[in-house]
Amino acid sequence: MALTTAERQQAYRLKHKNDLKRIDLLIKHEDASIFKAQVKKSGMTRAEYFKEMLNKEACYAGNLKTECTDDGLAELKAAHQEEIEGYKAELKIAIEREQHARKSRTDEQVRKDYSKSERENSKLIATNETLNEECVNLSKLYEAEKKSNIQLRKDYSRVERELAKKTSREQELDKERQK
Fold it and tell me: Which residue has the higher pLDDT, 2 or 64?
């Protein structure tokens, strides 16, 4: 039985999955049409033409393909290196400014920061002491409430016993009256 197109593609992809990598690019329509025209003109497939471009170190100036000479490539590399050096210089200046800002903190600023942290620490200690006092007071209230509840339970039990005795006496008296 003949394979369908999808099955053939699947088999091809499985066979070449370690050798080939798919590249999807989004480019402008104009660039795509130029690429297709150049591929058609060369008589190669798109993949072959793309590989050829990579191997020749082709350069692009705008949308026009130009072959790079050693001088042109050297100029591009020099311009790129110059740009990198500029970025490095800017980064170095930024680092020096940051280091200078850190060093320029005076002793007075350090003392102010220390005093501020001491004040905040004192406030926290005072708050902690207040909370501890409230905790002790709440514990005392809890214990008093606990004792009160115990006493109430005892009183309740006593009252229930007395009520039970009264009820039983009344029942006995009612029985005696009925006799």
Answer: 2
Side-chain-facing half-sphere of 147: CA atoms under 13 Å: 5
From CA 172, how far away is CA 7, in angstroms rounded?
103
* Among 48, 127, 116, CA closest to 40: 48
Question: To the nearest 10°, the Cα dihedral for 120, 126, 127, 132?
Answer: 150
- What tokens does 46 get? 């798109």
Residue 64 φ/ψ, nearest 5 degrees: -100, 130
Cβ burial, residue 72 (10 Å; 0-12/13-18/19+): middle
Query: pTM above 0.85?
Result: no
Contact 57, 68 (CB under 8 A): yes
Interacting residues of 11 by C-beta distance below 8 A, sequence separation 6+? 3
Model confidence pLDDT, tens digit, residues 22-68? 888 888 888 888 889 988 988 989 888 888 877 765 555 444 455 55
